[in-house]
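User: Can you recover a sequence for this backbone? Please restate the input before giving your answer.

Assistant: Of course. Working from this structure:
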């Protein structure tokens, strides 16, 4: 028996403390206490974007890795991140058209994936399972993806973390890349808590097919008819998981009671940024992909991914790509793609049929313009980041462009966004057409963007001029490793 003259007071205090802990566990989020999963260790390490980090990829045969990169097969490496070594990390090239064109132009600078649990069960980097290294393919500014993610985060959309990284291979310089948190388990825990839902990266098998599933169209109740979604699930899914998602698509197809099947507010915020940055290598464009789909309790959200061809620079797969900056920068926000795509994109089209959602969409544009662009936040972030990465761009041995072309691209990106913001403000106020039909009736209405040279942001000619630089950097690594 425990004997203490204050035993009663101790027991009471212990009971009160236990009750307090229980309340914090149950209602901590409502009281403003962040979940542990919302602040994983990797956030303040690799994804501290106030500095340029270092990643040294230690690999036995870099030449063989480059030669076989198009296979997208994992090999084992040691990743030394900011001086700390992580062993048996999976490394592979990544990309779609960027990977194909890197191969076609006989280049060596691929975007990469680093996966910590590919060869080691439970392997992680302070809670992170995987991140990618974006090569800034056809992005001479190095800033398209970074700035778009900053806009998405500003608008409250669950967005991958990112930061700049100086990459070396076996101690030899390879270049400046953008490290991006891959949307998998760690991303889901950070954004949605430990009891997160299901995550998918819908993608097509062939652009010649209808791809109704990745357009998020309801087909029927058979999961086998949605291979573009379910074959690209990030987590193991059950039949019940599949049925829940299909039911959400069915509700979406009706255009009624959409809030029971769609996280409407979040989706509207996503489309606000998506339309601003004129990204047609996306759900709203020809390919219909490059997004993540999140489902929880039968409710769908769409999440951002892949912006190296944003800001009007997408031309891949288009038989007659638009090059006129006056058309692109003034592209209407109410019909942000051709009708043949819009009518087959129910997540946008059916939401915009609802007057209340349509009004909220416009309200979010006003917020983005007034609180991000017109008050100088965009330009400040752009220029601060430009200054941060400048010394690394100058010495980047595998860059797709010269440093002077990089500076020109940053200025062009600033110019494009400034004019795009002015155009959308005019569309909101009714001064400029906000639909494609309106632009056909009045093609000269809008901001004058004729001085803009969109090819300054990155074009195919840059790929041709980069080969000599990349060959030299690769040879240096291979000679040291020999």
């Amino acid at each position: 028996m425990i004997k203490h003259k204050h035993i009663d007071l101790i027991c009471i205090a212990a009971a009160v403390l236990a009750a307090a802990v229980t309340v914090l566990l149950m209602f901590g989020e409502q009281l403003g206490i962040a979940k542990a999963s919302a602040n994983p260790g990797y956030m303040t390490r690799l994804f501290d974007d106030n500095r340029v980090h270092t990643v040294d990829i230690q690999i036995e045969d870099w030449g063989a890795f480059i030669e076989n990169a198009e296979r997208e097969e994992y090999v084992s490496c040691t990743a030394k991140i900011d001086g700390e070594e992580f062993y048996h990390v999976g490394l592979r090239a990544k990309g779609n058209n960027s990977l194909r064109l890197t191969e076609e132009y006989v280049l060596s600078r691929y975007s990469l994936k680093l996966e910590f649990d590919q060869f080691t069960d439970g392997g992680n980097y302070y809670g992170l399972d995987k991140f990618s290294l974006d090569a800034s393919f056809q992005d001479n500014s190095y800033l398209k993806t970074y700035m778009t993610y900053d806009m998405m985060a500003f608008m409250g959309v669950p967005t991958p973390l990112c930061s700049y990284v100086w990459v070396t291979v076996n101690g030899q310089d390879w270049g400046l890349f953008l490290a991006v948190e891959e949307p998998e388990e760690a991303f889901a825990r950070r954004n949605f808590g430990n009891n997160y839902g299901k995550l998918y990266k819908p993608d097509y098998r062939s652009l010649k097919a209808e791809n109704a599933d990745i357009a998020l169209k309801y087909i029927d109740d058979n999961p086998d008819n949605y291979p573009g979604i379910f074959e690209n699930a990030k987590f193991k899914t059950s039949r019940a998981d599949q049925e829940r998602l299909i039911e959400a698509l069915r509700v979406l197809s009706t255009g009624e009671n959409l809030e029971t099947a769609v996280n409407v507010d979040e989706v509207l915020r996503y489309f606000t940024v998506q339309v601003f940055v004129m990204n047609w290598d996306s759900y709203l464009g020809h390919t219909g992909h490059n997004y993540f789909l999140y489902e929880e309790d039968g409710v769908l959200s769409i999440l951002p991914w892949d912006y190296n061809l944003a800001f009007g620079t997408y031309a891949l797969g288009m038989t007659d790509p638009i090059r006129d900056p006056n058309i692109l920068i003034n592209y209407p926000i109410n019909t942000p793609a051709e009708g043949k795509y819009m009518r087959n994109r129910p997540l946008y089209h059916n939401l915009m049929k609802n007057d209340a959602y349509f009004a909220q969409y416009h309200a979010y544009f006003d917020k983005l313009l007034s609180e991000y662009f017109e008050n100088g936040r965009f330009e400040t972030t752009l220029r601060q980041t430009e200054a941060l990465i400048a010394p690394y761009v100058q010495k980047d041995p595998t860059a797709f462009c010269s440093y002077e072309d990089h500076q020109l691209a940053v200025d062009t990106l600033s110019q494009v966004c400034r004019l795009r913001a002015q155009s959308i403000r005019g569309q909101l106020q009714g001064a400029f057409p906000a639909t494609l039909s309106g632009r056909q009736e009045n093609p000269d209405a809008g901001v004058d963007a004729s001085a803009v040279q969109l090819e300054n942001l990155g074009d195919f000619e840059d790929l041709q001029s980069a080969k000599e630089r990349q060959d030299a950097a690769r040879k240096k690594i291979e000679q040291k490793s020999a």
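That completes the design. The longest strand covers residues 84-94.
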